[in-house]
Amino acid sequence: MARILTGVSQYRRRLNSASVSLAASAAFPGVFLLRLACAALACALSVAVLAAPPEIDHKLGGSAFIEARGLPSGAQLALAPGGSYVQYGTALGGAAQAIMVKDRLAYIASGSSLLIFGLAEDSPPNLLAQLRGQGKITHVALQGGYAYLADSAGTLRIVDVHDPQRPQPVAAQPLPQPLSALHVEPGRAYLVSGKQLDILDISQPQTPQRIAGFTLPGEAIAVQVAEGYAYLALPDAGLKVLDVRDPHNVREAGSFRGEARDVAVVQGRAYLANGATGLTILDVSEPQAPRWLGSVNRIGASLALSYDEGHIALRNDRSEITLIDVRNPGLPKIVAVHRPDCPVDAVVLVQKQVLAIAGASLETVNFSAPSPGAVDVGANFGGSRRAVLRDNILYVADWFSGLHLYDISEPAAPRHLAAFHTPGSSKGVAVRGDYAYVGDDDHGVQIIDISSPRRPRKVSEIATPGLAYTMKLVGDYLYLADHRGGFHIIGVADAAHPAIVGSAQTADKAWAVEVVDGIAYVAADNAGLLVFDVSDPQQPKQIAAHSLGGAAEDVVIRDHLAYVASFENGMHILDVSNPSQPRAIGHLPTPGNARGIELDGHVAYIADWVSGIQVADISDPAQPRLIGSHDTAGWSWGVLVQGRYAYVLDWWGGIAVLDVSKPAAPAPAGTYHLRGTARDVVARGGYAYVAGGSNGLQIFDVKTPQNPIWMAGVDMAGDVQSIWLENRTAYLAAGEGGLLAVDISNPFEPQKIRRYAVQADGARVELVRARGKLVFAADRQHGVVIINAATGQQTAMFAAKINDMWPAADGRLLLATQGGVEIVGVSDPARPRRVQRLPQRAELVRAQGNLLAIYDKTTGITLYDYPRLRRLGRFNPAEEIFDLQLSGNRLYASGSLSGLLVLDISDARHPALKAAYPAASGTTRLSEFSGAVFMAGRETLTTVRLLPDVAFSSKGNGGITVSAPPQLPPGSYHLLALDAVSGKRVVQYDALRVVMPAPKSRPFSLQDFDRAMRERGLTPMPRQ
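Above: the chain sequence. Below: its structure as tokens.
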């Protein structure tokens, strides 16, 4: 029998027949039934495991036989991209709070009871014993054959578990107050109650004795002890390290600032669940000075973690479980993300399996199945690289889309003012007066009039022989680092007629230039720091060079000191009081790759590429030291500081704002892109237009569907919930912000056209559609307002409580209501009238040509012949559907369980399931374009790359043959069987694997490529 997920009733019968008694019987209390309900009718879990799923060759395709029994008769079949799955589910008889695992035994605190389960690889957890107590158990710890249980009544209970089938209480130690954290090690127990740490002698577990106490600097919620040091997680103060080698003389040893929710310490490394910052890894081989090694912050707000064999299982505020490979601490890697149906309260990692407490059930999550990666969550938020701050406007050079202007008068909430799309790829920017000078790579320097910040316009340009990168403005001269073309001095006294007045070749690529007192300092890659006398701009002369042993990418001069960012080895500090003889005085290695430097008082902020922002104390330039860090969502290329805020140019992570009022503890303060939720999306012509909630309109280039790249945005008042494209205009429903129109004829430079007055009760615009010159703005409670787009005048209102609406090709408007589908004639916009009614309640309505699709929660998806309103076929997805799209002979539906369902409707009488994409669950609206479906409902886009169709045939002997074409992505696939009439569904997990063929020879590596190029006298691909 295979990995099968069936309906709730079967799940309950299986548990009732197979579970071990927890006293009298394994009942299903109300909280457990709620957990079943939250799994939305499809949350049963498998009871057996195939030794190895069948395989198909990725390159050749082919057929494979899947052993499958218990599938619904006549069910439709589809493959679903696989990955982690709940392998076993075990009822606990009541809500559980904590879990510990040791020696293949799980100790679970469930209410006032301790449950002990035996764990085996190929079978569900087996209940061995239950021990009842008085108060609710809040913490469990294990040591030397004893379990230590802290309860809400203020008691520490010690239980002998040498024989796990016969646990025996041996002691009960009263506590002054309930615990917030507990840790035990040989001979000692560490008990935390808010700000108090108590140490017990447990060398004789039957008679525990208090040794000493210590008052903490804040309230701690987690504690770990290793090598004589206690590591405490304080949510408001970060990690505190105490020297507890002498329990009678506990002393503070070290600290690491930030938010700390949980901690694990293993072999000289501390792993912190850092709340909004994600996961942070510290070197604590010297506990007095914890040192940042690496971090991951694209995993939600982390709350708890568990370590095992070089991996971390981390639980976030959305109950998602993220498995992270931390064997290389400097570059931790996300292996997989599991999104459970029900809230998760605790996790523990055991050999790539996660035991998760979900209310009254214990779930075994299997992470061994590799995901095909058909679903991507996220986007490239541009190429933010360098910026200038002036008068509360941030001018950003964006590699992918030119110059962007942001209003930062509210620093934590930057607002997009305008964009100017340059012909090249913007690398740097300088601003003076009414002009911005943009280093535009192979298109030289673009000079842009910014006198009207909302309408920048090009004034002139000047070609350069290399690649125009960053620059420095001094007087009427622009000093340009031209990358492969050395550096140039450009006269810009007349912005309309710039001219190169002087140039100098550099020994390597010029990345950045700084000019002070007639001296130019050029960060010149592997040539290091080059120094030029530019007192005569027409004849710059090199007067010095200083090698850094790495590639110089940025330079800042202050007080006769040069601070140089070296890609390979951090920040170098040189004494340039004698510019012709630079002298090294200090060096600070960084964990990543230093690309930019900003100085603020005695602090240096280093943009450290994949390692985010590093903060250094430079009060003693000879001995700079790292004092803090923050891993940004993208790859930090530049940073600017104004007041208490740092603005990070975060490459594909966009613009991030950090609060640096405490430089040692940079804290996320805001971002431009990741504000609110992507509410709706429409993809057209290679671009995706997103209704971004509080983030207004966001536009992405999706010509490469798996890598959406942000191009531009339009800020607007209100919560933008719905979007509709009509010709060259995007109409946006912005709730109380009303109805807005944006000109998208140039997607790189969208322009607001107008805000329409909507005169209706409540005046809350929740939904928008358009057809030709008419715009339909709906308030679901009051009805539809009809507006003439050309004049902006409201022509009429059609009163109705609606769920959805759609403009049909025949010019009529379809309204989905609880009482049926209203078909409204709007040929006279001043007098809309109902011309027909289809008496079927509807949540969603869509029309394409002569085909009408309706969804309601009771009957599912029904297809009609639109002209005749004659029913053709029906498909019951057995889940809630949030959005539909008809596209050719396909119907796409976003669902609460499957994420994305794809139906073949070439025969509308018999819609056929073709694929399901569960990793897209949690999304709501969708739009298909060029072999991909873009979905809204999270902070950013979800992209589903559509799989090629596969064919199924039944062998009649308890199995299914699946035939797949070549290029089905490698990975694990689940088999979904769905009865489209009854809605009954069965999922067989990890039913099929697509594998890459074994290589016939050693793979050709990047090193091989570089070597081959050198052998041919060519230069390997440079960094950009």
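Confidence is low (pLDDT under 50) at residues 1-50.
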